[in-house]
Amino acid sequence: MQLLSGNEAIAQGAWEAGARIGVGYPGTPSTETMEAFAEKPDVYAEWCSNEKVALEVGVGASAAGARVIATMKHVGVNVAADPLYTAAYTGVGGGLLMLAADDPGMHSSQNEQDSRFHAQGARVPILEPSDSAEAHAFAKAAFDLSERFDVPFMMRSTVRISHAKSPVEVGERQEAPIREYGKDPSKWVMMPAYAKGRRLDLDRREEALVAWAEICDYNREEMRDEKIGVITSGASYHYVRDALPRASVLKLGVLWPLPPERIRSFAEQLDAVYVVEEGSNYLSKQVLSFGVELCEPPAGPLPRAGELSPGIVRAAFGLELPWALPEPTDIPGRPPALCAGCPHRLVFKELSRLGAIVTGDIGCYTLGAVAPLAAMDFTLDMGASVSMAHGFELALAGGEHAPVVAVIGDSTFGHSGYSSLLNTAYNRGAGTICILDNRTTGMTGHQGNPFNGITLQNRSSRELGLEGMVRALGIEDVQVVNPNDMRAVRSAIKGAVERKDELSVIVFRSPCVLLKKVFVRKPAFFINGTCRACGVCTQLGCPAIAKREDGTASIDPEQCVGCGQCASYCGFNCIEQTEGERK
Predict the structure, then answer these.
(1) Most C-beta atoms within 10 A of its C-beta, which of 38, 128, 191, 462?
(2) pLDDT band at residue 332, thresholds of 50, 70 and 90?
(3) Global pTM value
């Protein structure tokens, strides 16, 4: 018995089932799944450039006969939707499991969405565990099921299931020989002549899956009070059990296809039936489509947005909490901020000074949008900064306007920014692109990417030349700048935006300060007693710098990393560095 997170349990189950290959793109809350799988013996695992590529690699390995796990967060499923929807037609060779980790409450995401809708749309079966033991069991069984029904299987977790730990009875690895590949264009070549046949075959496979869902023990009835019945799944199951301990429950582990006869049979035994689910109405819509009459909780509907909790469920049913935590008092706010010494800080400070229109992207540098830097105007999705900047330039062409600058990280540039820049270059677009190359995939925990050359299992690789790839697009104005040098940053951005008819790319290259192999705490800086209370250094948003009641600045020596960015902005030489080595 081991105490495992849901992510670790999924990796363990895939390994025990004989999965040989793991592919994915890091994204909270899914990341640890592939990292845990990569540490298992006798497996190959890699971070791919994006989720579409990951699933395509996975489908290829499956077609060749290997068992494969592919992992991504919910917005990554959008990127992977192209191959996913057609992979349902082709089916599999070796079993293929795709993890979609959803993020109700948007703890680390730009939106909420429910991956069960993708499974329904693609007609790919999806399993949803409610704890680590089920995550392990479902993942282990998914490969046999995938091969049995000739279709990829999805698993949906949510942030609570992904990260919460619970006991798991682990087992030994069962070796799964690579299944023999045989040429079969009617199965694998999805041109219209063959795809039409596979479409009809998918109908037959769906019928078989529905019949399986009707008897599958991943769906279970827990009969208690006959007055109230709740249909639920995943983390919501635990909220229901805590909030309504006497209610009968139909706990669903297979969320597509759903078992209509089983749902109707459950409902017929009860006076009132409710659906409890997070973040969407996927389940309630499906249950209604089966002719089951659903009731609304007596105190009002459950919230459509965010995570649920036992308290929220009890409140919806007009019940008080059996206990209540005291309300916190006198706790200072902790707004998110870039780390002390972050190499992104000065870029945003200069863009803010310039009054630029800044299209941003997905990464820790999205914090450039918040006060006091407040430099970023837009964030949409991975790679969108470059495309949106091009759109701005098109709309504002010929008129006077603030400079338009796109900001994107190195990993995100490899994910989908390069194709956006390809489009801008091809269409003779203009503007300034800032690539923040901090030598890692920072926000998700310092994973490798094509531009630092570090692979998931530290295999021999190659570090791709970022600026060389940019120049290969025919872009001539390409600079590499140290982002910790304020004057160099200011000069590079100012020069680029002045070349209004050109497409300029600035690569700001400096390692993330949290990288273990490069982090060195230099002697700290301090305020020498001559502070004029001008506020310039406090507007950098460095967590090591605070403002006293009299308006003067102070520097916390425990948080200061000795980068000197604040000193470069002080026009009165009020900030100095301590002498000697730091202890």
Answers:
(1) 128
(2) confident
(3) 0.94
